[in-house]
C-alpha cells in the first residue's frame, strides 16, 4: 500500500463555475478551502462580456469569500460575435482578466450568447494572439446531425485544426476534454496549447448516467464517454505531460433544475475536488504525479507563479452530505451520501 499521507503544493482550479448572488456565496468557500486560485467561467445571465463586468463580478466573488482566505479569482470574458478587439487590449491591461471563453452558441448552460460562426470573431482572435491572451474552448460542435458522443471529436476536425492553422501562436486550452482523440491531439500540440481534465471524467464512464435508472446528477457537458476514453484521460493526466492540468468544471445547479423533465448539465465537485483527483490518481498508483497536474502545469501555462504553500491529503474516507446549501435551494453534490476515499487534512 502506498503512503496514507500526501503533501503537495497548493493546487489551482483552471476551470470553475462560481455562479452569482446567493448561489455564489454558498459555493465559493468550498473552492477557497483547497485552491489558491481559479479561472472563473463567465457564463452568467447576462454573460460577463466586458472588462468592466468582469471587474464587478470579481468584486462580488471577493465579497463572498470567508474572511480568512487568500483565494484569488482569475477572471475570464465571454466571447460573443459583438466582442471588439479593443476589449482584448483592455483585458490584457487589466491584470485580472486571464483568458477569453469560447462557447459555441447553444452548446451548453447559458451559451445562447456564444459564437455561431468562428469566422465572425477572427479579428478578436487575432488580437488575442497578439496580446497572448488564452482562448478557452468548449470544444463541441452543436450540429444536431452529429451524435452527442462524437461532438468533441467533430469539433477538433472541423474547428480546432483549422483554427490552429490560422492562428498558430494563439494560446488555447481545450476545456474539460473527454475523448482519446482530444488527449492525442493535445499531446502532439505545441506547449502553448493545453487541456483541462475534470475529476468526474477521470472517475466515471457513461454507464454512470444510466446506472439502474437515469442519473441526472451524472449529466454534464461534454457528456461522459465510454471506458476507453476514461482510460485515455487517466493516462494523459498522470503521465507528467505539462499540456494537461486540473480544471474541475464544477458546475452547481439547484436540485430541482437537475431533477427535471429537461435537466441542466453540470456536476458539482468543488466540495471534494482535490480529494476526488487523489482517488483517480491513486487508482493507477500514480499519486506521485498529482502535484504536477494539480499545482504546476496550470500556472506554468498561464505564466503565473506556482503557489508557495502546501496542502496535505490523507487516505481517510468521509461521507459526502446528501445535499449542500445553494442559494434559496439545495444542490446535490457529486458522491452524495457516499464515501470519498481521501480527505483534506
Ligand atoms: C456548465 C454549467 O452548468 O455552467 N455545465 C456543464 O455541464 N459543464 C457549462 C459548461 O461548462 O459546459
Ligand atoms: Zn464549464
Strand content: 15-25%
Regions with little confidence, pLDDT below 50 for 5+ residues:
none
Rg over C-alpha atoms, rounded to the nearest angstrom: 19 Å
Q: Which percent range fits the helix content? A: 25-40%
**What is the number of domains?**
1
Number of DSSP-assigned strands? 15
CATH architecture classification name: Alpha-Beta Barrel
First-residue to last-residue Cα separation: 20 Å
CATH C-level class: Alpha Beta
Helical stretch count?
Answer: 11
Oligomeric status: single chain
Strand order, main sheet: write it out.
Answer: 2-3-4-5-6-7-8-9
The pLDDT mean sits at 97
- Largest sheet, if any? 8 strands, parallel
Which small-molecule species are bound to the chains here?
N-carbamoyl-L-aspartate, zinc ion
The CATH H-level homologous superfamily: Metal-dependent hydrolases
Order of helices and strands: EEHEHEHEHEHEHEHHEHHHEEEEEE
| Helix/strand structural class | alpha/beta
What overall geometry do the principal axes of the alpha carbons give? globular
CATH topology label: TIM Barrel
Amino acid at each position: 500500500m502506498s503512503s496514507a499521507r500526501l503533501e503537495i503544493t497548493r493546487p489551482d482550479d483552471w476551470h470553475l463555475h462560481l455562479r452569482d448572488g446567493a448561489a455564489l456565496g454558498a459555493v465559493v468557500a468550498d473552492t477557497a478551502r483547497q485552491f489558491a486560485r481559479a479561472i472563473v467561467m463567465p457564463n452568467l445571465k447576462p454573460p460577463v462580456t466586458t472588462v468592466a463586468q468582469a471587474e464587478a463580478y470579481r468584486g462580488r466573488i471577493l465579497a463572498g469569500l470567508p474572511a480568512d482566505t487568500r483565494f484569488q479569482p482569475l477572471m475570464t470574458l465571454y466571447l460573443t460575435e459583438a466582442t471588439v478587439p479593443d476589449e482584448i487590449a483592455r483585458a490584457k491591461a487589466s491584470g485580472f482578466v486571464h483568458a477569453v471563453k469560447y462557447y459555441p452558441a447553444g452548446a451548453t448552460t447559458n451559451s445562447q450568447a456564444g459564437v455561431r460562426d468562428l469566422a465572425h470573431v477572427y479579428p478578436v482572435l487575432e488580437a488575442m494572439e497578439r496580446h497572448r491572451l488564452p482562448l478557452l474552448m468548449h470544444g463541441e460542435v452543436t450540429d444536431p446531425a452529429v451524435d452527442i458522443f462524437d461532438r468533441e471529436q467533430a469539433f477538433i476536425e472541423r474547428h480546432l485544426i483549422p483554427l490552429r492553422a490560422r492562428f498558430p501562436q494563439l494560446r488555447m486550452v481545450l476545456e474539460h476534454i473527454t475523448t482519446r482523440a482530444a488527449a492525442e491531439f493535445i499531446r502532439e500540440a505545441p506547449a502553448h496549447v493545453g487541456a483541462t481534465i475534470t475529476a468526474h471524467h477521470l472517475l466515471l464512464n457513461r454507464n454512470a448516467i444510466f446506472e439502474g435508472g437515469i442519473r441526472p446528477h451524472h449529466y454534464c457537458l461534454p457528456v461522459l464517454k465510454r471506458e476507453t476514453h476514461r482510460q485515455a484521460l487517466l493516462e494523459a493526466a498522470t503521465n507528467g505531460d505539462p499540456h494537461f492540468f486540473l480544471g474541475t468544471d464544477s458546475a452547481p445547479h439547484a436540485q430541482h433544475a437537475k431533477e427535471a423533465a429537461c435537466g441542466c448539465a453540470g456536476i458539482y465537485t468543488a466540495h471534494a475536488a482535490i480529494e476526488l483527483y487523489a482517488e483517480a490518481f491513486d487508482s493507477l498508483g500514480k499519486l506521485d504525479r498529482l502535484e504536477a497536474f494539480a499545482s504546476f502545469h496550470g500556472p506554468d501555462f498561464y505564466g503565473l507563479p506556482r503557489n508557495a504553500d502546501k496542502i496535505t491529503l490523507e487516505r481517510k474516507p468521509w461521507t459526502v452530505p446528501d445535499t449542500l446549501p445553494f442559494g434559496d435551494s439545495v444542490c446535490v453534490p457529486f458522491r452524495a451520501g457516499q464515501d470519498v476515499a481521501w480527505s483534506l487534512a
